[in-house]
Amino acid sequence: MPDGLDFEQPLLELEAHIAALRALDDPLKHGDEIAKLEERLQRQRQRTYASLNAWQRTQLARHPKRPHTRDFIKLLFDDFVELHGDRVHGDDAAVVGGLALFEGRGVVVVGHQKGRDTREKIARNFGMPHPEGYRKALRLMQLGEKFGKPVVTFIDTPGAYPGPGAEERGQSEAIAHNLRVMAGLASPIVSVVTGEGGSGGALALGMGNRVLMLEYAVYSVISPEGCAAILWGDAARAPEAAEGMRITAPDLQRLGVIDGIVPEPVGGAHRDWDAAAGLLRGALRQALGDLAGMSARHLVEDRQEKFRRLGAFEEESRTRSG
Hints:
8-stranded mixed beta sheet
């Protein structure tokens, strides 16, 4: 793969060796060698991806071939109808959403959208929404509430766009308004961090009754580079910052920030979109099923209680002997 990461190089070399043997005029002569190399490759893959550190997971979460929101929509939903605009300023291509069917059930689906090539990345603003993107997302979620449809959100953004235009049009207010309205939305909400969940730009779509994360996704209040630049004045120390920030799915599940981890195919979701979508389908089915029987009041109470628990701690009192 031309987009192979540094820690994947030994695996890529083995894959290239196997491919070269298969390309020979008479590959049957090398059948035993190919079989041994494939077995070795499988073992090495398991070891490599079972021991990734936080920075390596961040690299996978940002992989250019990782499936984005529109990819998951095509693989998971039927009859998707995209809706545009916030009815205030315009349409933001960094957020996509609309109406769809999930296993025969009507839902509203909304998510951040990054680009693939340079042209699309610019058109999608690198997945960094403007205020109109968040207002569009909220309009669609309120549409789901109006018609009694569950809401599914996909989170994959470095953060909200910090440019002057976005600030002039109320970026922080748009994010805060999303948080307030989502907290009281009478529809079930399932949020999934599929790649990079950055800061309030991610949280604006993340106030779910159930918050799931793909195995190699990351979720944090700031990027590791930004954290390193603030703490040490050196963005190159991002790997060190990533370790201390507790941004990986296992860390966040232990802290109670997320409710579940969706496994990915060995090597990451970018290696097998269909398998990744299949695993996510099962997790969505279960989450939506768990919420299906709740009343509107119970859904709101469940969601608000979930987020009130975040950051809770107990202070141990110490007595001093005099």
